[in-house]
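User: Here's a protein and a ligand (flavin-adenine dinucleotide). What would the complex look like?
Assistant: Let me lay out the input and then the predicted complex.
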Amino acid sequence: MYPAYPAPSDAAVRHHEAMLAFMREEVFPAEAAYESYRHQAGEGDHTAPPVIEDLKAKARERGLWNLFLPSESGLTQLEYAPIAELSGWSNELAPEAINCQAPDTGNMELLHLIGTEAQQAEWLAPLLAGEIRSAFAMTEPRVASSDATNVETRIVRDGDEYVINGRKWWISGAADPRCRVLIVMGKTDPDAETHRQQSMVIVPVDTPGVDVQRSLPVFGRQDQHGHCEVQLSDVRVPVTNVLGEEGGGFAAAQARLGPGRIHHVMRALGAGERALAMMVSRAQERRAFGGPLSDQSAVRERIAESRIELEQARALCHHAAFVVDSEGNKAARHLIAAAKVAVPRAVTSVVDRAIQLHGGAGVTDSTPLAMMYGWHRAMRIFDGPDEAHLTTLARAELGREPLFDLPPSIFDQSRTVEQ
Ligand SMILES: Cc1cc2nc3c(=O)[nH]c(=O)nc-3n(C[C@H](O)[C@H](O)[C@H](O)COP(=O)(O)OP(=O)(O)OC[C@H]3O[C@@H](n4cnc5c(N)ncnc54)[C@H](O)[C@@H]3O)c2cc1C
């Protein structure tokens, strides 16, 4: 009832200060080179701008590496949250610079939690070293994938191998030439109990039958690492590639998405802060009707509302992170669900106001606002749409033991007194 958050460790404070300096000295100055490379390479190009590898080397030198994983960094989730938030100010560069980018972080967490020693040596080690990238393949175009039990991809055992057939889409990261491995979710036993039908299998991207066909744009923008439609046709991998146990895919997906979701919302807060900072500076510089826009009470109100929404969203995110640290992912799942709904909503509403204040410029790509809007609007769908989280939350509330045994309604009581 009265959460008393532990003070951050010296290491957490040091890392936070180092991240602030890294953002100022390296990341923001690198944004122009990143955008210019992508612009010149063209829409269909998914190679990483060289400035990314430069930033990775610099971040590593500063000790800013793999901070998302407590066993690597020594940081709690609550300590990581403000650092992840800083990275979200430059979401296309900073998370990857410190090797804390989705979807690799979720995949690394999975491999760390349930990978065998051999799987960890082959895939986790190069991912932690930032040498390769990875993707997570669950969603399918043919079925409502917000309900993961619908997944139709078949994983059929044939001797010492699995044979995989299915079609996936929205597979983030699969267009990046550095992506070497997919974690594929499919059905190993369609006759088992609903939540025991699925398994996760490690599939190297160069396995025959893996066909990365196209990358889907998010509101018209192609992300560098892409979100791909992938056809899997008679893909054969050894049975030792199963991640965790056969039939354990659903439980593993829940384990993967818990920390992944909260890391997304931590970074989203940084984007919200950037949009608010842009709103403030625009309001002070731009003049209309005899003075700066910041003189207008409607503008002031929007700035103030934005601050309130971001603080509320951050409080929820940090509380969820604290419960992950103190009681584990399972105990925190409802708070994570609440943060996964509240934070992208708050951030899209702040970005929307910032776009409005920038007038026509706000809807062009001459500011990052349009891209930020698209990404955070999409966040209300990926990692489970809002409605799925709201359903989970409502179920928990409906099952909650009431704190007080309340009397019948006041109206009924007053009638009893009158009689
Ligand atoms: C940018 C982006 C990146 C993504 N990256 C990945 C990735 O790397 N790997 C991967 O596997 N997937 C990825 N996805 C897919 C994403 O996780 C799915 O789109 C999401 O889970 C929803 O599934 P669906 O698209 O099949 O929608 P559906 O399941 O068809 O749902 C459609 C809509 O139905 C409504 N709905 C669903 N459930 C309920 C409910 N219980 N109550 C009321 N309404 C409901 C919601 O409005 C929902 O948006 C990504 C998606 C995007 C947009």
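Summary: The chain has three domains: 10-128, 133-247, 251-398.
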